[in-house]
Amino acid sequence: MLRSLWLKLLSPHEWTLLLALVVVVLVTGAIDPQHNYFNNPTASIIDIARQAALLGVFALGAAVVIISGGIDLSAGAMIAFSATICASVMQVLAPQSVASGEFVGYGIATLAVGAALASGFLVGSLHAWLITVVKLPPFVATLATLVGLRSLARAICQHVTSGSTQIYVSDSTFRYLSTSVWIPVTLFGLLAVGVCVLLSRSVVGRHLYALGGNEEAARLCGLRTDRLKWLAYCISAMLASLAGVLYMCDQGAAAPQTMGLGYELNAIAAAVVGGCSLQGGIGTAAGTVLGVLFLRTVIDAVSKVIKVEADIYQGLIVGGAVVIAVAFTQLGHRAGRFFQGSLGLVAAVNLSLLTFVLTMLFVPRMAPHLAEHGNAIAAAAGGVVALLLCGLHVASRIKRR
User: Which of 47, 58, 251, 401 is most buried as measured by Cβ atoms within 10 A of its Cβ?
Assistant: First the structure.
């Protein structure tokens, strides 16, 4: 009975992801020279929680779209666009206050945030129209806005500021929306609960799962698939626009040229790591929350372990972590099949070479006192991985016979 209760709280994949999160924290705390996770856990928890909340706000929207069988590539551009809209409204209505770093007033601030959310609603509706009426694939429709929204935001910014590439928002009162910890975390928690209720406790949520599982069957059953897609894409775009306001407060400026670059991939990665299937019909809000926490913890761990220029390796490590986390649930019954046939042998060689290169690059940064032995350590690591994977390849061939 106790076991069934635990399984109802989280799925096996989510428990595995939670375990992986704990392992990342323990390993990072052990190999970090300053042992920040052990010696100063409060600061690390606050930083991870705030950054995870910012990412999680629009990752929830990405999860809803993926569950419905679609994809939204425009989240990063939507963040930049909504931030520009919000800052532009304040710039137009209270130029002197913005220029002097004073608070624009609650009325103007509310209007600016409302305009940003309205832009998300309009963009989400545009996506739904392109996908359901014009019949563009979701990938193409959202790819177009990925490029177009950022360009439009830059044009609006230059028009409002008479040539500047960004609008500064230095007022501490408005920026407190994001620079504080409790506001983003509380907002993320409320949104997570709301999405969880929508997906698991409502008729609309069941219809979204049905849409993602088999759109044609859902249509034949009488579901209004076009309206469901409109709802999913509006939720995604509006949550991205809300995240844009928070990121603008965090950075103190709306900079459409650089703001939100690549963030859509982080959102999709968090949803997929959390258990959402890109084929649609599978995923939960709880899994997405755990995926967000896992990604942000890995990113923070990289900066803790690699002290200098950690951002160079951040994408590589996060990408590898995503692949490992998604594949980890299949290791129990498919480990031998990963390295079957000629492709399996080539994959073993590739992974061995990758292990050698990464070890050669990381050893001098993670353990400077071992730098002079870096090549030897890298060769040993690559050799061990090669022997292990080639062994799996041979074992799969023997098993097939």
Answer: 58
Q: Is residue 366 domain-shared with residue 277, that is, in the same domain?
A: no
pTM here is 0.88
Indicate the number of domains in the chain: 2
Structure tokens at 33: 């020279």
The answer to whether residues 39 and 90 belong to one domain is yes
What single letter denotes the amino acid at residue 394?
Answer: V
Tell me, yes or no, whether 216 and 280 share the same domain: yes
Same domain? For 365 and 290 the reply is no
For residues 185 and 187, give the distance between their C-alpha atoms in angstroms, rounded to a whole number.
Answer: 5
CATH of the domain at 275: 1.10.3470
User: Could you give the dihedral angle defined by the CA atoms of residues 121, 127, 133 and 139, in that order, rounded to the nearest 10 degrees?
Assistant: -160
CA gap 91, 125 in Å, rounded: 27
pLDDT at 393 over 80: no
Per-residue pLDDT band for 382 (boundaries 50, 70, 90) equals: confident
Q: Supply the pLDDT for residue 333.
A: 46
Which of 284, 305, 329 is at the close of a domain? 329
Q: What is the mean pLDDT of the chain?
A: 86
The DSSP symbol for 55 reads H
Sign of torsion over alpha carbons 248, 252, 255, 258: negative
Which residue range is the domain that position 350 belongs to? Answer: 334-400
**DSSP state string for 202-265:** SHHHHHHHHHHH-HHHHHHTT--HHHHHHHHHHHHHHHHHHHHHHHHHHHTEE-TTTTTTTHHH
Same domain, 210 and 148: yes
Handedness of CA 251, 195, 293, 210 (dihedral sign): negative
pLDDT tens, residue by residue, 216-263: 999 998 999 999 999 999 999 999 999 999 999 999 999 999 999 889
What is residue 317's three-state secondary structure? helix
Q: What is the pLDDT of residue 1?
A: 47
Pairwise CA distance, residues 82 & 293, whole Å: 25
- Quote the DSSP letter at residue 167: E
Q: Is pLDDT of 108 > 90? A: yes
Instruction: Please say if the pLDDT value at position 310 is more than 70.
Output: no
Q: Which pLDDT belongs to residue 327?
A: 67
With a cut of 50, say whether residue 332 has pLDDT above it.
Answer: no
Cβ neighbours of residue 225 closer than 8 Å, sequence gap 6 or more = 132, 211, 215, 218, 219
Same domain, 314 and 347: no
